[in-house]
Amino acid sequence: MDQGLAAVLGAAVGVSGTAITGLLGYVAARKQAPDQGRIEHERQLRAERRETYLAYLEWMQPANDFGALERGDQTPEALEAVRLKLVEAHKHLYALKPRVDLCGPREVAAAASAVWMETYELSIALERRVQGHAPAAEVTGRWFECAEASRRFVEAVNTEMERKPR
Description:
Four Helix Bundle (Hemerythrin (Met), subunit A), mainly alpha
């Protein structure tokens, strides 16, 4: 009888061990699937953010081009050429703004809005300067405001892109 009891106990331990191992495997697999999904989602979101931010940065360049001011070329023709580039950039920033808003986070979206607004204000100041209704200092001040908004956007993007995935 001792051998029979030992066999039954051994089989019970084996069955219990197998059942527990199966249960732990099941629980681990259920946890791993959402983790994998979350990781993949985070990776795709980061890639989409990177693409969107780079496109936005590309169209910010005309707003940061101090060319005419640095060269001292403040003829109406030179300023108008800069203004037209700025208006074109502003249109593209406007078109990209919803993508930045969607990709987020809020800090980057807010900084992008500031760039868009300062680009508009700069184009208005340039137009007033070309028409002779604004002093050069107004344009310079607007350019510096636009550059500061651009710096804040880049800072917000860097902060977001350097953040470790969760």
